[in-house]
Please model this.
Amino acid sequence: MRWKSIAHVIGIVLGVMILFMSLCFVVAVIDREPASVLRAWWITLVMTMLAALGLSLFNRGPIQVSHRESLLIVVVGWTASSFFGSLPFYLSGAIPSEINALFETISGLTTTGASILPDPGTLPRSLLLWRSTTHFLGGLGIIVFCIAILPMLGTGGMQLFRAETSAAMGDRLAPRIAKTAKITWMIYCALTLILIGLLKLGGMNWFESVNHAFACISTGGFSTRGGSISEFHSHYIELVLILFMLIGAINFNTHYLILHRSYRALLQDNQIRFFLGTWLTLSLFAALSIWGTTYATLGESLRHATFSVTSMITTTGFCTEDFDHWTPFAKLTLFLCMLMGGCAGSTSGGIKQIRVMVVLKKVLRTLRLFMYPRAVVPVKVGRVPVEPGVTSAMTGFVLLYLLALLAGTALMTLVVDGETAVSTVAATLGGVGPGFGLAGASESYALMPSAGKVILMVMMLLGRLEIYAFIALFTPDFWRR
Model:
């Protein structure tokens, strides 16, 4: 292990945190927030700066990291960012519990959106902005941001990019990985700015527009209000957020192609077609299920079902209604959305649509071979055959994901009821946020036992790092030379 390079990169990650923390500190000064909040920001900035400088001084030369070292950097980098990111909440007294402050920060950075705050609006504006900023940073990943702005990462940038974004990210957008990271972040920022403007036109003030845009494009879900999007009572805002939640859940390679006027890319991408087809089908099923039971009219049923299904399948977690009171079939539909997630190469979580599609095709292939043993039936995505090694890897990931869901649920049943256990594990592992039961759409995670919060924090990190990077650190082979 090249510990100097590892320490240097983690120091750079903390340096990026300082940059964004400073902006929130400026808001605190401008708003003349209480002395406890200003003191918390000072202490946080000093502590984070000392840690960043101390780690960066370990190495001043070129940064070279292997695949194994990049996995360690990603896991430790996310953990360190979560710790330092929680300090403003805890030191200010806004979230007086260490576990709760860490839970809120991990939820923000992993773009989960599970909150322990029944009413976020009680927070000072600087802390509300920092809470949403953790979503903005976590959407594409802090380390991808570092690669985009720091050419000093050199050849190690490719390894870090792969470890941060997972194998399902997609093709490069440019020959150099640093340029790919820059292009991706530029698209991400441009979409965020457009959404800020559209939300302002819908009646939100500038502060709320910024916070909700940060939470939407990153498919995070934190809101400035306790009732989430329902408190705005606006069809326009709901429609805009549906559109941008879907945009956030679509592969950023496709956004790049659309910007270069390759409009057919949207319709020709089999993963996107499968995703949109699944979204429309599940939205219709959920609407029909709650029509006449929860809501009197089909229009109202379609409105709330479409928003909730979009929010769940993109793993954003915004809410307009308390779906905990919907029919069992509608709740099952939302649970399936939590598991599947959006497209690979997007900011959404979950299993990812490409994996779901390939595994379903593999199941159909197995059934056909059962009836026609001598048939040659390749697994194809569109007209392109998928190599057996790729299908096996995707099947393995899905099984590992379901195993993590089962293990997490088993542990959670020791502290909460069964419905709450399975839904909260699915919601945190998939980066969704709200679940059912004690953590329903109208509730928060505040009443969750401390042991349950620790389990769910692990689930958040496990899901954001797509399981492999996190588990690899606990295997003996990882530490062997």
Q: What stands out?
A: DSSP finds 21 helices and two strands in the chain.
